[in-house]
Design brief:
With about 325 residues, this protein is an alpha/beta fold. It contains eight helices and 18 strands. About 15% of the residues lie in helices and about 30% in strands.
Length: about 325
C-alpha cells in the first residue's frame, strides 16, 4: 500500500562519496556530492542526514559543513567499538566513489541565530553539529562561546581550526586534568538569562548539561542525542487505524506500532527506531499516544497531534493515524 512514506522516499538523493578525511582519532569526515549538476537540499546548522548503507542499515549523521554550501554534504563519523553495524561498516567498507542514497536533511537541533548570545557545548564527536552552528553564528556576526570537551586531545576534531577564534573557545581535555570531566556549573551559572544554550555529546554530558540548565526557560535550552536509554512502548493491546485506506492493524504485546505495521505489509519510513531522529513522525488524527520520543517538546506531546511510531504507543484502545 501507499502511505506518507511515498513522498518521503522520493526525497532520497543518490550521492557520491567524494572524499574521506581523517579528522581525529577514530573519526573521519565524509564528503558527499550530488551526481551531475543537481544541488543538495537546503539545510540549516544543526541538521542531520540519513545514510542508507549497502548493508541495509540507515544511520543519521549531523551535517558539519556550512549551510551556505549547496554543492555538498559533509558529516563526521566516529568509529564506535560497540557499533551496531553502522560506523564499523563505514570505516571498513565505504570507499571514495561509492554511491549512497541519502535522506533528509531534517533538523531537530535548530539554532536561534537571533539570540543575544549562544553558548555551545560539545563532547567528542558532538562537535559536528556544533561546528556548523559556530560557522553560522560567526558568519552572521553574532555573540557566541564554545566549550569543547574530550577524553584526549587526539579525539578533538576541528581543534586546529577552532584555535583561530581565540578566547571564544574553551577546550577541556579530561586526561590533562586528572580525568575530571567538564564542570557545567563553572560557566553556565554566569550565562546571561537571554542566552540560548546548546549541547551535543555523550549521555553523561547531556545529563550534566540538563541539570545545570534546569532553571532556564526550556525554549532556550537545546540538546542533540546520539541514543537513548528510554524503553520503547511495546505493551501492545490496542488497534491502529490507517485513515487513508481504512485498514486496522492490531498491535500485539511485544510490538511497537512500527513493527506491527511492517508485519502487515505497511511500508513506513524509519531510521533510528529510538525516537531521536524524526524519520517516522506521523500525524495523529484520533486517539491518545503514549509518547516515548526525545524530539517533541512537552507542549507538542500534550497536543497529541503527531508522534514517533517507532517508539511511542497508545493510551487509547484505538489510534487513528494519517497513513
Amino acid at each position: 500500500m501507499e502511505s506518507n512514506s511515498t513522498a518521503r522516499d522520493l526525497q532520497l538523493m543518490p550521492m557520491r562519496l567524494t572524499a574521506i578525511t581523517h579528522a581525529a582519532e577514530q573519526t573521519h569526515l565524509l564528503e558527499f556530492r550530488p551526481i551531475g549538476t543537481q544541488s543538495v537540499a537546503l539545510f540549516e546548522a544543526g541538521a542531520h542526514i540519513d545514510l542508507y548503507l549497502p548493508n541495509g542499515l540507515v544511520r543519521q549523521y549531523s551535517l558539519t559543513n556550512s549551510q551556505n554550501e549547496n554543492h555538498r554534504y559533509v558529516v563526521g563519523v566516529k568509529r564506535d567499538p560497540r557499533s551496531r553495524g553502522g560506523s564499523s561498516y563505514i570505516f571498513e567498507r565505504l570507499t571514495v566513489g561509492t554511491v549512497l542514497k541519502i535522506g533528509g536533511p531534517r533538523n531537530n537541533f535548530r539554532l536561534a541565530e537571533a539570540a543575544a548570545h549562544s553558548v555551545l557545548v560539545a563532547g567528542g564527536i558532538g562537535i559536528t553539529p556544533i561546528w556548523a552552528m559556530l560557522q553560522s553564528l560567526e558568519g552572521a556576526g553574532r555573540s557566541w562561546e564554545l566549550h569543547y570537551a574530550a577524553r584526549t586531545r587526539s579525539e578533538m576534531a576541528f581543534a586546529a581550526e577552532l584555535t583561530q577564534f581565540g578566547d571564544h573557545v574553551h577546550f577541556h581535555v579530561d586526561d590533562e586534568v586528572g580525568g575530571a570531566v567538564l564542570d557545567m556549573g563553572s560557566f553556565i551559572g554566569r550565562v546571561s538569562p537571554d542566552s540560548h544554550l546548546y549541547c551535543c555529546g555523550p549521555a553523561p554530558m547531556l545529563a550534566s548539561f540538563e541539570d545545570a540548565t534546569r532553571s532556564r526557560p526550556r525554549a532556550q535550552v537545546h540538546v542533540e542525542r546520539f541514543s537513548t536509554d528510554l524503553a520503547v512502548a511495546d505493551a501492545g493491546g490496542y488497534r491502529v487505524e490507517l485513515a487513508r485506506c481504512g485498514k486496522v492493524v492490531k498491535v500485539e504485546a511485544g510490538q511497537t506500532i512500527l513493527e506491527a505495521l511492517r508485519a502487515n505489509g505497511v511500508n513506513v519510513p524509519s531510521s533510528c527506531e529510538q525516537g531521536i531522529c524524526g524519520a517516522c513522525e506521523t500525524k495523529v488524527i484520533a486517539g491518545v499516544p503514549e509518547h516515548r520520543d526525545l524530539i517533541l517538546s512537552n507542549e507538542e506531546k500534550a497536543a497529541n497531534s503527531t508522534m514517533m511510531i517507532c517508539c511511542s504507543g497508545s493510551r487509547s484502545d484505538l489510534l487513528v493515524l494519517d497513513l
